[in-house]
Amino acid sequence: MTPDEIVQQLTSSYAVVIFNKSDCCMSVMIKHLIFTLGAGPKVVELDEHVNGSGIQDVLCQFSGTNQPIPAVFIGGKFIGGVDSLITYHLDNKLIPHLKEVGALWL
Question: Cα 71 to the chain's mean position, in Å?
């Protein structure tokens, strides 16, 4: 499987996917927010994945930057990184979107 196919397969198979690196403090914050809301995301640690660098290159295309980590997908849609997710949450869009894709039950 190519890195692009891996991203496509994961983001279409799970309601919430977080691509991150295990030593990234922003990634820890994103995971904490999603878990605290009650969702159980698929977390992909790129520094521990055999195709991590290739996947990161694919995520650069989504984000338009050379620092795409963390990257959050909800319902197969690229939401973005920390700033985008926090803004999404503050705009009261995150919880309804998580409910819509079945990541939250209530």
Answer: 4
Mean predicted confidence (pLDDT) in 63-67: 78
SS (H, E, C) the chain: CCHHHHHHHHHHHCCEEEEECCCCHHHHHHHHHHHHHCCCCEEEEHHHCCCHHHHHHHHHHHHCCCCCCCEEEECCEEEECHHHHHHHHHCCCHHHHHHHCCCCCC
**Does the pTM exceed 0.90?**
yes
CA distances from 100 to 12, 15, 62, 73, 93 (A): 15, 9, 22, 14, 11
